[in-house]
Predict the 3D structure of the following.
Amino acid sequence: MAFSSKFKPFKLALIQLGNVTASKSDNLAHARDMVLKAAASSRKPDLIVLPECFNSPYGHAHFPVYAEKIEPESESIKMLSTVAKETQTWLVGGRCSYRTRDGENLYNTCTVYNPNGDLVAKHRKVHLFDIDIPGKITFKESETLTGGTTTNFFDTEFARVGLGICYDIRFPELAMISARQGCHVLIYPGAFNMTTGPLHWELLQRARAVDNQLFVAMCSPARDLTAGYHAWGHSMVVDPMANVLVEAADVEDIVYADIDPALMESARAGIPVTEQRRFDVYPDVSQS
Ligand SMILES: NC(=O)CC(=O)C(=O)O
């Protein structure tokens, strides 16, 4: 399928998935049921998003155990591809994967399927979640994962969609590159926590949206206080003026948003920062 990067109104659904257990098959079956539920709703989404690592609990110990190769026979790929085709929707699913060639590195990857069930894009989390806030949270994804090395987007019949995963949202450069590549919407499957969630989850999405005057969405797992990692939840869609269009609470839910290109046009016309950038003053900030 070849698409122009035309921007047309569409409907987006974020599945804030709960009931994640130790059984990958059960998690996949539940995720599938939730995709079917979202697709059958009266909101009729064109694009459905699942959270980061939706097929497993989140944590170091789990990454290698639940990882799969990105190939048609893999359990998660099969489910995602089949349900995208069955529901005739675009689908973004975040999970852990092995690289199939060039070593056995593990990546935190999200894969994208078109309504024919074809795998059309993938994004490997570029910035690994390595933080240490004493007394609050220490996490080092780099102990088990390798960072991706590319920016990624995909074209649909309604928009160009840029991809990031969770911690990637903290890096304005990645979002700005996607914006300059013509993306209208940025999607980040993510799983912030009880320390950084209240501090930065909304702030970062609104910041990336207003920096780049586009739509930003983050899709989290539901909070499970019996799990090792307590996700913040609050899956959210933000418009190009940095208004929050929709926000989940912390429990399992599906939230829907109408993505209206007119909001992007009026934001860009009213505050034309995209035309006012002074690349003569800051040609390449990475060199500073
Ligand atoms: N889990 C992440 O990758 C990121 C996160 O929780 C944060 O940036 O905060």
About this structure: The first strand starts at residue 10 and ends at 16.
